[in-house]
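Whiteboard transcription, Tuesday session. T.W. wrote the C-alpha cells on the left side:
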C-alpha cells in the first residue's frame, strides 16, 4: 500500500514528506491549486477528477494568474528584465548546480511590485519559519475565533485595513498556487528548444515531430534545502527547475 492510499495532511510537528510524484507516477494533482487529490476522490469511477474541491472547480485562471506563471518561468530561466536582478540567486548556487532558486515571497514581491526582502539561506532558516498551515489561507476563521483574540476593531480605517489584509492574503495564495502548478504540471517547452543544466534554453537536437504533446519542463519545491511535496510546503518555500 502506497502512502497515497491512506494519506493525511501532516501536522505541525511532522516533517514535510518528500514528493509523492517520485514514488507514485499515477498520483493526481488539482488543476487549479496544484495540491494532491485525496485517494477517495481520485479513485471515483466513470469520472475524470481534475480538482480537489468545489472551490477549485469553480476557480478559473485569470490574467493575473497567467502573469504570475510567466513571471515564475522568466525568473527560473534567468530572463533579463524579469526581476531576477533584484535577487541574489548566485549565492544559492551549489558546485555543479547553477539552477535559479526563487522563493514564493520573491515572486510575490516582483509580481505585485513590492520590495524584495532579503532571504535567509537554508542553513540559516529555522523550523519555526515553516510552522504555517499550508491550507490556512483557504480556511474561513470566524471573527474573534483566532487563538481567543477579540473581533477586529471597527474604528476609522479598520474596514480598509481588513480589505487590504484579505487582498494580500489572496495574492500570497495565488503565487503559491502557481508555484505548485509549476511543480506538478510544469511549463510547456517549445519543441525547438531544450533546457540546459543552468535552466536556460537552447535549440533542441531533435524537433520531437512525432510527439502528440508538447514537452513540459517541471519544477520542484524546497523547504530548508530539501525537496518536498508541494501540497504540504509551508512558509516561504522555494522553487527551482527539476534536474
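and on the right, the sequence the group agreed on:
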Amino acid at each position: 500500500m502506497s502512502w497515497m492510499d491512506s494519506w493525511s495532511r501532516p501536522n505541525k510537528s511532522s516533517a514535510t514528506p518528500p514528493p509523492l510524484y517520485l514514488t507514485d507516477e499515477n498520483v493526481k494533482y488539482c488543476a487549479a491549486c496544484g495540491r494532491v487529490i485525496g485517494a477517495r476522490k481520485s479513485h471515483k469511477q466513470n469520472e475524470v477528477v481534475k480538482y480537489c474541491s468545489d472551490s477549485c472547480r469553480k476557480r478559473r485562471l485569470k490574467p493575473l494568474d497567467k502573469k504570475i506563471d510567466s513571471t515564475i518561468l522568466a525568473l527560473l530561466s534567468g530572463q533579463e528584465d524579469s526581476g531576477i536582478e533584484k535577487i541574489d540567486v548566485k549565492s544559492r548556487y551549489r558546485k555543479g548546480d547553477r539552477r535559479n532558486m526563487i522563493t514564493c515571497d520573491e515572486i510575490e514581491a516582483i509580481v505585485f511590485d513590492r520590495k524584495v526582502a532579503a532571504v535567509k539561506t537554508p542553513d540559516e532558516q529555522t523550523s519555526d519559519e515553516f510552522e504555517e498551515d499550508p491550507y490556512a489561507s483557504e480556511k474561513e476563521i470566524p471573527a474573534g475565533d483566532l487563538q481567543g483574540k477579540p473581533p477586529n476593531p471597527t474604528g476609522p480605517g479598520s474596514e480598509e485595513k481588513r480589505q487590504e489584509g484579505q487582498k494580500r492574503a489572496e495574492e500570497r495564495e495565488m503565487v503559491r498556487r502557481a508555484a505548485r502548478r509549476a511543480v506538478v504540471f510544469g511549463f510547456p517547452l517549445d519543441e525547438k528548444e531544450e533546457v540546459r543544466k543552468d535552466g536556460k534554453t537552447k535549440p533542441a537536437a531533435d524537433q520531437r515531430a512525432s510527439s502528440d504533446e508538447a514537452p513540459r519542463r517541471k519544477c520542484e519545491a524546497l523547504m530548508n534545502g530539501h525537496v518536498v511535496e508541494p501540497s504540504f510546503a509551508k512558509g516561504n518555500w522555494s522553487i527551482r527547475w527539476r534536474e
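Someone added at the bottom: The chain has one domain: 3-241.
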